[in-house]
From TrEMBL:
Annotated Pfam families: Arg_tRNA_synt_N, DALR_1, tRNA-synt_1d
Domain DALR anticodon binding, first and last residues per copy: 470-585
Gene that encodes the chain: argS
Family note: Belongs to the class-I aminoacyl-tRNA synthetase family.
Motif stretch ('HIGH' region): 126-136
Species for this entry: Streptomyces regalis
Protein name (record): Arginine--tRNA ligase
E.C. number: 6.1.1.19
């Protein structure tokens, strides 16, 4: 593996050196380098420096220009406006940079983090015995993309699927199964769809009795106590619900083309044993106090409705533990056993108050420190075409599988229309990659904290900012590379580059920086925007610069190099987002 220093970093270094030799106080001043329309880059940092040094910015800029080393990366530099620098990069440097990235395989020259941390990513956390909804889809898609990007930077990630597999609602379910054994077919005999329909049936049946029969209600309540005290028979019945649900979860995740590992499914129940200890520590350290029998944490700064202070309930007056206790105990486990440096939660923004209180409690207890931080990547709501929370026409939450199936079906129409030499099997395979990719991309290309509209027509459209557009760009490049046959991509740094080649080459150079930024900010939409721009720049390049019919064999090879690095960057970038790039479409 040979990491490549980006052109931006090299230019930055040259500028920093020139600034430092012009002014000693410039040491550490950011040259503020940006891509620009006028030249390749513009540096705006001199304005701040001039202010600091109390000198005329234009004069200072002229002085700095005199100190800039040109010839290797920087071809040309000039002062513009009140003291900006416009910089042009040498064609040779662009081509050599691409060649170095091309030689570095999948990593494309992107270096690994110097001091990686351990990030525990809490995502894709559906609830046992319940249907998954679009909110769970977002958590899974965003969490998976964040992990992909973080891993690529060299960060170590550990997944935690904090599934809802514990709590009072299980009393009713278990009691029903106890009284009606055999209602749930063994998990190994069912597929995902059957599993969910069994669970739904049991849920409805038990709910009906629960709501109408006071004695059953009482038996269900006792069942909760038996569950929490670890009664063997009760736990076995509970396990049946968990196993049946997992069959269903896995079938949905498979449809989503997402790898979920069993050892990372660590639900609320896993923290059951540690909860009394959590409560004890919090009470002994005075972080939590007894109030009307319950153990609670108060916050001056956190207020809910009507400006009333909202306490966090660690333990209820009846001794029971809830959602907060399991999250607090999970934090202890993630910090002290998994040695996490960052805790990331990909959870609906509507739970942000809960996390604010949980994090603050953990800070007071000393579990979270300046070295171990926690973030809730709270995502917004999925809206229907009418701009209201996504529901079926009957007003019910949309079944996730129906949604995914429909996306794949729509994608099949698009693929079939364009397909020339594909068999029906190939069309179906591509349709799955296009349809699921479309759903993921639509989610990931908006900032996670914003709501977004679930609009299948737009998602599978060939025009605009969609995954299909990116997948077609990739497939088109592959077709050119196939047509090139024995002519292989090769760098010819002596060749002058056309403007469209330069623009594409410079954008390719920014891949690594973009992934690092998007990962650090938990902003997959920044990577998506980068990839979309990459495909657009490729399209203009393709329109303006003949590849296989270029002027000379050298130029053909050099342009094939651009094509190949573009394809690999698209492929890698999409893979980080969890989206496939078929070789043919
Ligand atoms: N199962 C929860 C839900 O469906 C989400 C769990 C989020 N993670 C956590 N550590 N609380 O709303």
């Amino acid at each position: 593996m040979a990491p490549v220093t980006s052109l931006t970093a090299r230019v930055n270094q040259h500028l920093a050196d020139a600034l430092a030799s012009a002014r000693p106080e410039a040491d550490g001043v950011d040259p503020l380098l940006r891509r620009s329309d006028r030249a390749d880059f513009q540096a705006n940092g001199i304005l701040a420096l001039a202010k600091k040094a109390k000198s005329n910015p234009r004069e200072l800029a002229t002085q700095v220009v005199g100190n800039i080393v040109t010839g290797d990366v920087i071809k040309d530099v000039e002062v513009s406006g009140p003291g900006f620098l416009n910089l042009t990069i040498a064609d040779r440097a662009i081509t050599e940079n691409l060649a170095a990235r091309h030689a570095d395989g999948e990593r494309l020259g992107v270096p690994l983090k110097q001091e990686p941390g351990i990030t525990v990513v809490d995502y894709a956390q559906p609830n046992v015995a319940k249907e998954m909804h679009v909110g769970h889809l977002r958590s899974a898609v965003i969490g998976d993309a964040l992990r992909g990007m973080l891993d690529f930077t060299g960060e170590k990630t550990i997944g935690r699927h904090h599934i809802g597999d514990w709590g009072t609602q299980f009393g009713m379910l278990i009691q029903h199964l106890f009284e009606n054994p055999g209602e749930l077919a063994p998990a190994e005999d069912v597929d995902g769809e059957q599993a969910m329909s069994n669970l739904n049936r049991v849920y409805k049946a038990s709910r009906a009795v629960f709501d109408s029969d006071e004695e059953f209600k009482e038996r269900a309540r006792k069942r909760v106590v038996a569950l929490q005290s670890g009664d063997k028979e009760t736990l076995e019945l509970w396990q049946q619900f968990v196993d049946e649900s997992k069959v269903y979860f896995y079938s949905v995740f498979e449809k989503l083309d997402m790898e979920i590992r069993d050892e990372e499914i660590v639900g609320e129940s896993a923290y059951n044993e540690g909860m009394p200890e959590t409560a004890r520590i919090l009470e002994e350290t005075g972080v939590a106090v007894r109030s009307e029998g319950a153990l609670v944490v108060f916050f001056d700064e956190i207020r809910g409705k009507d400006d009333q202070p909202v306490p966090l309930i660690v333990q209820k007056a009846d001794g029971g533990f809830g959602y907060a206790a399991s999250d607090l105990t999970a934090i202890r486990n993630r910090v002290f056993d998994l040695h996490a440096t960052t805790l990331l939660y990909v959870v609906d923004v509507r739970q942000s108050l809960h996390f604010k209180m949980v994090f603050e409690t953990a800070r007071r207890a000393g579990w979270l420190t300046e070295h171990v931080t926690a973030h809730n990547m709270g995502y917004g709501t999925v809206l229907g075409a009418d701009g209201k929370p996504f529901k079926t026409r009957e007003g019910e939450t949309v079944r996730l599988e129906d949604l995914l199936d429909e996306a794949v079906q729509r994608a099949a129409e698009v693929v079939r229309e364009k397909a020339q030499d594909l068999t029906e099997d190939e069309i179906q395979e591509r349709a799955a990659q296009v349809g699921i990719g479309a759903v993921k991309y639509a989610d990931l290309s908006t900032s996670p904290n914003r709501d977004y509209k679930f609009d299948l027509d737009q998602m599978v459209s060939l025009n605009g900012d969609t995954s299909v557009y990116l997948q077609y760009a990739y497939a088109r490049i592959q077709s050119i590379l196939r047509k090139a046959g024995e002519t292989k991509p090769a760098a010819h740094p002596e060749l002058e580059l056309a403007p469209a080649e330069r623009a594409l080459g410079l954008h390719l150079d920014a891949f690594g920086d973009t992934v690092f930024e998007a990962a650090a900010e938990y902003a997959p939409h920044k990577l998506a925007a980068y990839l979309y721009q990459l495909a657009s720049l490729y399209t203009s390049f393709y329109d303006k610069c003949p590849v296989l019919k270029a002027e000379s064999p050298e130029q053909v090879a050099n342009r094939l190099l651009l094509c190949d690095v573009t394809a690999r960057t698209l492929h890698q970038g999409m893979a980080l987002l969890g989206i496939r790039t078929p070789e043919r479409l």
